[in-house]
Amino acid sequence: MGGNGYELTAVKFFNGRYHMYFTAPNTLQGGPAIGVATSASPAGPWQDSGTPVVPPENNPYNNNPGCSAIDPDEVQDASGQRYLSYGSFNRGISVRKLSANGLTSDASSETQIAVNNYFEGSNFLSMTATTTSLRRSTITAMGPSVVTVCAWVAH
C-alpha cells in the first residue's frame, strides 16, 4: 500500500489465518487508509494484501479532504457476515461489510454509526441477532476522552 508503516492495528483470527487490520497513515495516494495483512501465526511474518480495505478518501458526509480512515476493528454477526468499523474525529465512525475472506470491503454498504467531530476509536464488544455493542471514545475540547458504549441495530 505504500506509506510509512502500520499503526492502530486490530488482529483477528478467522478462515484459518490471522488478519491484521491496520492504519497506513501516509499512503502514496495521499491521506490514511486501512489495509490488511495475513499470517499463519500471530507473530508473523505478515503478508500485506496489496490493496486497501478502505482507501484514502474525502469525508463522505461533508466532502472535506483528508478523511481519516483509522482505528479499524472487525466483527462477525450470527449469519457469518463480517464487518469493519473505522473512523476518526473528523469523520465519525462508520461500518462496512467485509468480503468473506476479509480482504476487501463494500463501499456501498457503508453506514455511519457515530457522528463526526465527536467520536473515534471504536471497538466491537459483541454482536447478536438484534444489536451490536460498540465501545467508542468521546473527544471534546472541554476535557478528556470518555469511553461510552452504544448499541447499533442494523441487522
How many strands appear in the DSSP assignment?
11
- Rg over alpha carbons: 15 Å
As residue ranges, the low-confidence spans are 129-133, 135-155
Largest sheet: 4 strands, antiparallel
The averaged pLDDT comes out at 74
- Which class of secondary structure composition applies to the elements? mainly beta
In whole angstroms, the N-to-C terminal distance is 32 Å
Helix content: under 10%
Spatial order of strands in the largest sheet: 1-2-3-4
Model description:
With 155 residues, this protein is mostly beta strands. It is built from no helices and eleven strands. The protein has strands spanning 7-14, 17-24, 33-39, 47-48, 73-76, 82-88, 92-98, 105-114, 119-127, 132-140, 143-152. The protein has a four-stranded antiparallel sheet with strand order 1-2-3-4, with no helix packed on it. The chain has a four-stranded antiparallel sheet with strand order 5-6-7-8, with no helix packed on it. Strands 9-10-11 form a three-stranded antiparallel sheet, with no helix packed on it. Strand 9 (119-127) and strand 10 (132-140) form a beta hairpin. The N and C termini lie far apart (32 Å).
